[in-house]
Structures are given as C-alpha cells and as structure tokens.
Description:
GO terms for molecular function: isomerase activity. Residues 32-357 form the UDP-N-acetylglucosamine 2-epimerase domain. This is UDP-N-acetylglucosamine 2-epimerase (Non-hydrolysing). Keywords: Isomerase. The chain is of the alpha/beta class. The protein folds into two domains: 6-173 and 344-362, Rossmann fold (3-Layer(aba) Sandwich), CATH 3.40.50.2000; 187-332, Rossmann fold (3-Layer(aba) Sandwich). The protein has 16 helices and 13 strands. The strands form two sheets. A seven-stranded parallel beta sheet has the order 3-2-1-4-5-6-7, with helices on both faces. Strands 10-9-8-11-12-13 form a six-stranded parallel beta sheet, sandwiched between helices. Strand 5 (117-122), helix 5 and strand 6 form a beta-alpha-beta unit. Helix 1 (14-29) packs across helix 16 (349-361), helix 3 crosses helix 4 and helix 8 packs across helix 12. It is globular. The structure holds uridine-diphosphate-N-acetylglucosamine and uridine-5'-diphosphate (UDP). The site of uridine-diphosphate-N-acetylglucosamine has 19 residues, from helix 1 and helix 5.
Amino acid sequence: MRENPLVLHVLGARPNFVKAAPVVRALGELGVRQGIIHTGQHYDALMSDVFFADLGLPEPVANLGVGSGSHAKQTAALLVGLEEVVQEHEPDLVVVYGDVNSTLAAILVCAKLGVPTAHVEAGLRSFDRGMPEEVNRVVTDALADLLFATSPEALAYLAGEGVPASKTHLVGNPMIDSLYAALPALDPAPVVARLGIPDRYAVATLHRPANVDTPEAAKELVDAVLEVSRQVPVVVPVHPRGKARLAEAGLVDGGTVRVVDPLGYVDFLSLVRGAALVVTDSGGVQEETTMLGVPCLTLRPNTERPITITHGTNRLVTPALLPAAAEKALADGAATPAGELPVLWDGKAGPRIATVIAAWLKGDNLAPASQAKRPE
Ligand code: UD1
Ligand code: UDP
C-alpha cells in the first residue's frame, strides 16, 4: 500500500448520506485521507444538501450530476462518470453503501479497474428479485473485497453465496450511529408546531416502485392511508418519486392529512420520535423506528430487515390490513420491542468499520468482527 493511502466514499441517494456520515467521521479521527464522490443520483436540496448539513458531512470532492432516468440510463451515466473520477483520483479503497444504483455502478467500475472496494450494509436480502435494490445487493456483495454487515443473518446469507468469511465483518448499523448522534437534537415540538398538527399523529413515507409507480397500487395504498387518517392525523413527507402518482390517487394536503415536502434528517426523525405510529415502505425507517421504539407498519410483502420484526417494533402489512393494524397499534400505545435491540446497534458501527479499514490499508486483515461480543 502506498504512503498516505486514499479512501473514496461513493454516495448518491438520501439513505447513503445517513449511513456514510459515521464512517467518514471515524476514519477522519484515525487520520485516514478520504473524500466523497457525490454521484448526483439525488439532487434536490431536500434530498441531498440538507443531509450534508444535518450530518456534518464534508463537501464532496466531485459531484457527477447524473440525475434521474430509467435504470439503464441512470446506471450508464453512473458508470461513465464514476470510471473517470476513480481513474482521476486513484483511490486505494472505494467504500459503497446500501443498495442504490450508485452503489451498483461504483462496485462494477471498481471491479473492472481493479480498485479494491468495501460494502457497508452487506448481506441484506429480501429474496425478492423484483426489487431493484435486491439485484444491486447481490451484485455488490459478489464483487466487494470487504463486507460490513449490520445484522447476524447477513453473515449466513453471504456465506451461502460463497463469500469467504475472511471478507465479512459484523459491525453493527451505521444508520443507527447517525440516529444516536442526532438524538439530543430530536425534538418533535417545533416540527409539530410548524406543520400545525396535533400532538398525537402518525407519519407515513412511501416511495417503493411496487407501491407508487402504478395508478392501481398507488390508489390502494392511498385509500388505506386515508382510512388511517380517520383514526389519527397523518403527516406524509412525500418522496419526489411518488409525488404526482400519489396526488392523482387522492393523497392531497388538507383535513387530517398533511402532505409536505421531504423533511431534513433532524426534522424527520424528530417527527418520528414523537409519532404514535409510523407507516412506511422505507428500509431505513424500519430500523430507526425499532431503535426509537415507535410502532412501525411496513407496507411491503417482505423485508430485507427481518431483525426489525424479531427485535423491534416493525410489522409487515398489506394495504387491506393497514387500517385494522393501525387501530391496534394506536390502542396498544408505546411499542414494546419484540426483543432486545439487535446486537451491536450501539452507535459504534462507524468506529468499528474505520478500524477494519485502517488495518486493511496497512495490509492487515483483522479477524472477522463476526466474533465481536455484544457490548457490556
Ligand atoms: C432510490 C433507490 C432506492 C432508495 C431511494 C431512497 C435505486 C434503484 N433506488 O430510489 O433504493 O430507497 O433512492 O430515497 O437506486 N427525484 C427528484 N429529485 C431528486 C431525486 C429523485 O425529483 O433529488 C425523482 C425523479 O423523478 C426520479 C425519481 O425521483 O426519476 C426516482 O429517483 P431515483 O434516484 O431513480 O430512485 P428513487 O426512487 O429515489
Ligand atoms: N428521511 C428523511 N426525511 C424524509 C424521509 C426520510 O430524512 O422526509 C430519512 C430517514 O430518516 C432515513 C433515510 O431518510 O434516515 C431513509 O431514506 P429512504 O426512506 O428514502 O430510503 P431507504 O431507506 O428506503 O432506502
């Protein structure tokens, strides 16, 4: 390895920023030279800039501005842009996060250029190849050199796919690190006042293609959410993907439904912290509600995060079952998580990842952290 090696983080979409912040901070504390490449997959200020500010992320060294498009067009633009920028910067390691198209493109580009890679949030599986994210996860894990898992079952899936145990490390969940770091700033009161909603409310987020891309699916979903809004006011910070389709299906601001722009990280989690109920199809929100002990109903047939059901407050529901499930969750009051919090969700995943990366840069492969003990 050369003197003063360089680590590049490839980030593109909202959840990437949340997962990367603790890793970037911890590598900084170890004095590792690093930079962020922003692909520009998400580009609205409320989908990108606000996260850099809220999470204290440094300015990217490059923004590729790839923007939106079909999977092929977006991935093609990502491949071309990333190849150029990786060749220009000559990193010793590229770190990718989660399961978005920017993640997939970065791992492909680096594999072809012979640049080593690390994948943060490796081994999650929904076993649903109809989800674009599942395709991205499988390809990313097949090509990564270092794989950082957030939950134990991921290690078994990776082993089953032939990934050597020497590459995998169970490190905990960096998205939960970000939540821990933000916790003192999470206050529902000012957000509730600004939105003009009562103190008892639900929050809903919807953006999965299977839920919002067709008028039929959107209508079924919106009808179910509107029924919930007859029980409790619902705030919906709308992801740009579903904005038009959900509005056409009847999700409009007024009465007991507050439809608002996407919220910044601190505002959103403040709202979630004070919510009586969360309804979502987001991956990250399933984890954050588990950590905060807020009841979560996930509008999906499956989840790549089953630990939020076995050790958390999450339940999968269909649109048809949502109103009754919401009624029960609201009647039961504060959620009792199903078990202890997932192992190593202790706010220290970033430092664990940074320790493994720093050792790897020096030529050491630390013993797989899967042997790490639950903190006292
Ligand atoms: C992407 C990820 C998804 C992740 C989500 C997080 C893929 C395949 N999907 O989905 O896994 O859960 O991010 O939020 O990578 N748009 C804007 N402004 C923006 C960004 C997007 O208006 O700043 C609109 C555009 O119309 C765009 C659509 O949202 O076509 C979808 O954006 P895209 O990045 O392709 O996928 P997401 O649905 O955001
Ligand atoms: N989030 C946010 N504002 C919002 C909605 C979500 O800050 O209006 C945060 C949320 O707390 C989590 C991340 O965005 O940290 C999850 O992103 P998203 O749901 O878009 O993606 P997924 O996790 O489904 O990939």
